[in-house]
Specification:
This is Cytoplasmic tRNA 2-thiolation protein 2. Belongs to the CTU2/NCS2 family. By secondary structure, the protein is mainly α. Helix content is about 45%, strand content about 5%. The protein has 19 helices and six strands. The longest helix has 23 residues.
Length: about 500
C-alpha cells in the first residue's frame, strides 16, 4: 500500500492516515502492507488477521458490545468506570434497553433524575413559593414523579434549615388519586386494599408531610355523591364509542384534579406523563384529527387550565421509569391498571412493537412532534416580571414565532378544552332541528364530535345537560383568561421587525 518511510509521503492524506494507523494499531490488521521495506510502522507483521479476530470483543445479547464508545468489554459502567453495570448486578431486570449494559444502578438513576431536574428548572415548573399537587395513579410513572418531587422538597428543606436568613420557603407537596370506580367498577376488597397501599406509600415518605386526597370522579358534579354517580353513569351510557369513553374519562380526570387543586390552594399540578405516553398520544391525536391542538398537549407546561399542569418526566421513557422502580424498590399499585381499548389500544400496541424493533422510536416520535409551534399557554405565566418578559422573548426567538402565532386561540372545545382552529366557526354539521344543537356541535372539536357526542341530534341537548357545569363553563373561562393574558404580555411579544436581541 505504502512504499517508503513517512517522510517520503507527499500527500497530506497519506501522512494523516499513517498517523492514525500508528495510534490505532488494533484496528488495521487488514490494512497492513506486509512489505519488508516499509518503515512507516503500520503494524503489519506483529499480528495476523486471525489474531485480530480473536481479540475482537463479543457482542452481548442486549446489543451492548465490548468495543468502544457505549460498548464495554469488562461489564463496567461507561460513566463512572468503577461499578458494574445493571446487567451484571441485577440480572433479573429485563427492562431498560441498552442502559442495562451501559450504566451502573447509581449512574442510571443519576441520569434519570438529571432529566427530571433539568425539565423542572429550565421550564420554571416549581418555585419555592409553590404548592404542588402530584397526580398519583399507583403506576411506575406517577410513582417516580412523586419520589423525585419528594427528593426535591427534601433538598429544599435541608437548604432552608441550613440558611441563616431563611428567606426562601419550602414548596409544599400534596398527592391526589382520582377514584374512577364509578366508571369502571372494582370489588370493594381490591379497592380498599389499593387505597390503603397508596396511603402507606405517601405516609412512608420522609417529612415534610404530604396530604393524600382520594377524589371520586362524580365529585365534579356536586357534593351529593348519589346524584353525581347517577349523572356520571348516565353520561357514559350516552357515549357509544369505546374510544370516546376513554377520552371522556381522561377529560373528567383532569377536571377532578383541577377541582381538588383549586379547593386546597395548590398552584401546580404535576403529572407523571412520560415520553412513551406522549408518543402514543401523538399518533392517537393524528388519527383522531386533532393535529391543530396536538402541540398544546405535548409540551412541558400546559397553563390553559386555572391551575397549570407540568410534565417533568416528559423526557423519560417508560422502560427507564419501570427499571427505576425496580432498582429503588419503589412500590407501585397495579389494582386499578386496565388495558386500553379502541383506537387508543391499537396505537399503544403499535408503538410498543415499534419500540421493540428500535428503542429510539418513541423518542423520535416525540422529537418530531416537538417541532410543532407551541401555544402561548405552554409556559408558566410570568406576568408583571421583567424576567418573564425576557423569557418570553427568548422563547419567541427559540421557536422562531411571530406574534400572531404566539397569541392564544379565541375558542376552546366544549368537552376536551383543546384549542379550536376557527373560533366561533360553524362546522359542516347535519343538524337542522334547532339552534342549540348546532351551537353545541360547533363548540366542539372534530374528535369529540365523532366519538363523544351522540349521533342523534335530538339527544344533544340532553347530553349537554349531563355534562358537569365546570366543563361547560371551562371553555368560556379559558377564552376570557387568555384574552387577558394576551393583553398583558403584548408589550413583551416580538414584532416582525424585531431581531430578538
Amino acid at each position: 500500500m505504502f512504499a517508503g518511510p513517512l517522510e517520503y509521503f507527499h500527500n497530506p492524506i497519506e501522512v494523516y492516515f499513517c498517523m492514525i494507523v500508528k495510534s490505532e494499531k488494533k484496528k488495521i490488521g487488514k490494512m497492513a502492507c506486509n512489505s519488508a521495506t516499509c518503515q512507516s510502522g503500520c503494524y503489519g507483521d506483529e499480528h495476523s488477521v486471525d489474531e485480530d479476530d480473536q481479540k475482537r470483543p463479543p457482542v452481548q445479547e442486549d446489543g451492548v458490545s465490548a468495543g468502544g464508545g457505549n460498548f464495554n468489554c469488562d461489564g463496567l459502567c461507561i460513566k463512572c468506570k468503577v461499578n458494574e453495570t445493571i446487567a451484571a448486578t441485577h440480572p433479573a431486570v429485563s427492562e431498560g434497553g441498552g442502559d442495562r449494559g451501559r450504566f451502573c444502578a447509581d449512574c442510571f438513576r443519576s441520569n434519570l433524575f438529571g432529566k427530571f431536574r433539568f425539565a423542572v428548572t429550565s421550564n420554571a415548573m416549581i418555585s419555592s413559593s409553590d404548592n404542588v399537587l402530584v397526580a398519583f395513579s399507583g403506576g411506575p410513572s406517577s410513582r417516580v414523579a412523586l419520589q423525585f418531587v419528594h427528593e426535591m422538597q427534601q433538598k429544599a428543606q435541608k437548604n432552608f434549615e441550613a440558611s441563616r436568613d431563611r428567606l426562601l420557603p419550602v414548596f409544599g407537596v400534596g398527592v391526589a388519586y382520582i377514584d374512577e370506580s364509578t366508571i369502571y367498577p372494582v370489588s370493594s376488597h381490591d379497592y380498599d386494599g389499593a387505597i390503603n397501599q397508596m396511603k402507606l406509600i405517601v405516609a412512608s415518605l420522609a417529612p415534610p408531610a404530604k396530604q393524600f386526597f382520594v377524589v371520586p370522579t362524580q365529585s365534579i358534579y356536586s357534593h351529593d355523591s348519589t346524584d353525581g354517580k347517577d349523572r356520571l353513569t348516565e353520561l357514559f351510557g350516552a357515549v357509544s364509542d369505546i374510544t370516546g369513553k376513554e377520552d371522556l374519562q381522561v377529560h373528567l380526570r383532569m377536571l377532578s384534579l383541577q377541582k381538588v387543586a383549586l379547593e386546597n390552594g395548590y398552584t401546580k399540578v404535576v403529572m407523571g406523563t412520560c415520553t412513551s405516553q406522549i408518543a402514543c398520544h401523538v399518533l392517537e391525536a393524528t388519527v383522531k384529527g386533532q393535529g391543530f391542538s396536538l402541540a398544546a398537549d405535548i409540551q412541558y407546561v400546559d397553563a390553559r387550565w386555572k391551575i397549570p399542569v407540568v410534565l417533568p418526566l416528559r423526557d423519560c421513557l417508560s422502560e427507564e421509569l419501570n427499571m427505576c422502580c425496580i432498582l429503588d424498590s419503589l412500590k407501585t399499585v397495579e389494582a386499578f391498571q386496565r388495558p386500553r381499548s379502541g383506537i387508543n389500544g391499537l396505537i399503544s400496541s403499535f408503538v410498543k412493537l415499534l419500540q421493540e424493533e428500535n428503542p429510539s422510536r418513541e423518542s423520535t416520535i416525540v422529537r418530531t412532534a416537538g417541532k410543532l409551534t407551541p401555544f402561548c399557554f405552554n409556559r408558566i405565566p410570568e406576568v408583571g416580571d421583567n424576567n418573564g418578559c425576557l423569557a418570553t422573548k427568548r422563547r419567541q426567538k427559540k421557536y422562531n414565532l411571530k406574534p400572531s402565532e404566539s397569541l392564544p386561540p379565541e375558542s376552546y372545545c366544549l368537552i376536551c378544552n383543546n384549542p379550536l382552529k376557527k373560533p366561533n366557526g360553524t362546522s359542516s354539521n347535519h343538524f337542522h332541528d334547532g339552534r342549540a344543537s348546532s351551537e353545541i356541535y360547533a363548540s366542539t372539536c372534530s374528535s369529540c364530535q365523532y366519538q363523544i357526542l351522540p349521533k342523534d341530534p335530538t339527544l344533544l341537548e340532553n347530553f349537554f345537560l349531563l355534562l358537569p357545569q365546570s366543563m361547560t363553563t371551562l371553555a368560556k373561562d379559558s377564552r376570557d383568561n387568555h384574552k387577558l393574558l394576551r393583553d398583558q404580555i403584548q408589550d413583551c411579544l416580538l414584532s416582525d421587525s424585531d431581531d430578538g436581541a
